[in-house]
Design goal:
The complex is a heterodimer of chains A (271) and B (277).
Chain A (H helix, E strand, L loop, with lengths): L6 E13 L4 E13 L3 E5 L6 H9 L6 E6 L2 E2 L7 E4 L11 H11 L4 H14 L15 H14 L4 E5 L7 H17 L3 E5 L3 H7 L2 E6 L4 E7 L8 H4 L2 H15 L17
Parallel strand pairs in A: 3-8, 3-9, 6-7, 7-8
Antiparallel strand pairs in A: 1-2, 1-4, 4-5, 9-10
Chain B lengths: L18 H37 L7 H13 L2 H33 L1 H15 L7 H8 L3 H25 L3 H9 L4 H35 L8 H10 L3 H30 L6
The chains are: A alpha/beta (271), B mainly alpha (277).
Chain lengths: 271, 277
């Protein structure tokens, strides 16, 4: 079992409820999860299972009703540059060029110009946008926008990356390409990643561990270890073991009511 | 608008090409030339029709008469003075109005307290045409420049403040969150996100404000103005001096158009980053 001291992200008994007209809506009903340093964890689940809420709590954009979330041993209170967030809608500042978008967090942190320039160039190059450094977001395709957002998140040197369905708005081909690029980036610049998706293939392809959530109330339904080797090539994607894991995750996501519930409990062994 | 293909990420295509930019540039000039030609044709045609009508029994001065009258007024030193006076009133009122409206709009959009305090008054005065306040303003401020500039100020302020406020309220929440997770605090979010994001709204408000400033100007000059385009037209009315009235109308039209174009130019410069569909 992963102990609290080893884990980078520690989520302890988090509940999040919303008061609707007459009833209480339980978005998250007691979630426990530990993520180890430099681990890549994907979270899948049906809509309404609270996966985005869980991420927002870690990002500090929402507060849990009860329970604590801590990152690197520090309890989360409010957003901060130690936790990079990548949004599905890219959230690039449309009035800033690619370079200025990537530079944004460094400027806010008052990093000296020379260092800023160097870091910005490095991360723009890392995501392969050097030819578009001075282009405005409106000139970029969806995939390029998301690569710019990834560079922007990396630029402030966060210890963890939280990604909320970052490739959800992209076409299937672009998505596969960006998945491979993301893993390449991640192998160069290791970070702890929590990646939310509704795409089972994506979840298995990227992760060390796949967390499957269930709705009403939002909870962790299952955790599946992915024992596929990195780098994950096309070969891995077409391997029988990938298909096997994918089927397992698929079953867990789409047949939650029929499968043996409670196959996961917080105390079960994890990576 | 643009038929340029949207850039697509293809696994094979590298580097990703962005054909949109070049295509738009290639298409635009011919389309623009066509528009300009049509504009000129329309203006020339319109003036011709005016001319023909006025020569065929309509009680209008011909465009020629109007032009001659304009030259005569200019030579007498009257037209410049009128234009200068009117322009000074409109610009003072409009610039002051916008200048006050922008911070008030920002305050209203950003702080609930400010919104709660300002909103009832702005909503109330918005429903009153500024000119309807003129009698009151005249009683309180006399018949000098002040009441005229004040009603123009009010017209510009009301148009711009609502629009600025809307701009701030409509700033995409995701952009604010994106700035927060990058470490930006309130002040940085305001300066680096809220202000640029609401610029398009402010400029639209300023253009609307400019329009209502002009509309308010002429009426405000009805009242004991020593000079001004509106005042000149009023006097001309007494003497059935139609050419002078036409000169006034044309001048107001042209000046309004020029100022609107200047604002439009500022808009394209400042908000060219917007994705237009």
């Amino acid at each position: 079992m992963t102990t609290a001291t080893q884990s980078k992200i520690s989520i302890q008994n988090i509940r999040k409820t919303f008061q609707l007209k007459n009833e209480e809506f339980v978005a998250l009903g007691g979630v426990d999860l530990d993520i180890a340093d430099n681990e890549f964890v994907t979270v899948v689940g049906p809509s309404g299972c609270g996966k985005s809420t869980l991420m927002n709590i870690l990002a500090g954009l929402e507060e849990p009703t009860s329970g604590t979330a801590s990152v690197g041993g520090k309890t989360v209170s409010g957003p901060g540059p130690d936790r990079g967030v990548i949004f599905q809608q890219y959230a690039l500042f449309p009035w800033l060029t690619v370079r200025k978008n990537v530079e944004f967090g460094l400027k806010v942190a008052k990093v000296p110009a020379a260092e800023r320039r160097e870091r910005t160039d490095y991360f723009i190059k890392m995501v392969g946008l050097e030819q578009f450094a001075d282009a405005l977001p409106k000139m970029l395709s969806g995939g390029m926008k998301q690569r710019c957002a990834i560079a922007r998140a990396y630029a402030v040197n966060p210890s963890i990356l939280l990604m909320d369905e970052p490739f959800g708005a992209l076409d299937a081909l672009t998505r596969v390409k960006l998945q491979e690029q993301l893993l390449e980036t991640w192998s160069q610049e290791k970070r702890t990643v929590m990646f939310i998706t509704h795409d089972v293939d994506e979840a298995v392809f990227l992760a060390n561990r796949v967390v499957v959530m269930a709705a009403r109330p939002g909870r962790i339904f299952d955790i599946i270890d992915v024992d596929l080797p990195y780098p994950r090539t096309e070969e891995v994607r077409l391997s029988p073991r990938f298909a096997e894991l994918r089927n397992r995750v698929w079953h867990s996501v789409y047949h939650q009511e029929t499968s043996t519930a409670g196959s996961y409990s917080p105390s079960s062994p994890t990576a | 608008m643009s038929l340029a293909p949207t850039p697509l990420d293809r696994p094979g295509a590298q580097p990703e090409s962005v054909p949109e930019k070049t295509n738009r540039r290639a298409v635009a000039p011919s389309k623009r030339t066509k528009l300009v030609v049509l504009n000129v044709l329309s203006i020339v045609g319109g003036i011709s029709i005016w001319w023909i009508l006025s020569l065929n029994g309509f009680n209008f001065p011909t465009p020629g008469d109007v032009a001659l009258k304009a030259v005569a007024l200019w030579d007498a030193g009257i037209l410049q003075k009128d234009i200068a006076q009117s322009l000074a009133r409109v610009l003072t009122g409009f610039l002051l109005g916008s200048l006050v409206a922008i911070p008030v709009g920002f305050l209203m959009g950003w702080y609930t307290t400010a919104r709660g305090l300002f909103e009832p008054w702005i909503q109330f005065f918005r429903t009153i045409p500024p000119l309807a306040l003129l009698p009151l303003v005249l009683v309180l401020m006399g018949i000098g420049e002040l009441p005229k500039v004040f009603v123009i100020f009010l017209a510009a302020f009301l148009a711009c403040v609502i629009s600025t406020y809307q701009g701030v309220v409509n700033v995409d929440k995701t952009l604010i969150n994106a700035a927060r997770v990058l470490g930006a605090k309130d002040l940085a979010i305001f300066v680096r996100v809220v202000v640029p994001a609401s610029t398009p709204f402010i400029l639209v408000g300023m253009r609307v404000g400019l329009g209502s400033s002009w509309a308010t100007l002429v009426a405000s000059e009805l009242l004991a103005a020593p000079a001004g385009l509106g005042k000149r037209m009023q006097d001309a009315q007494l003497y059935y001096d139609l050419p002078t009235i036409f000169v006034g109308i044309v001048c107001i039209g042209i000046l309004g158009l020029v100022m609107d174009r200047l604002l439009l130019l500022a808009e394209t410069k400042l908000t060219g980053w917007q994705e237009r569909r």
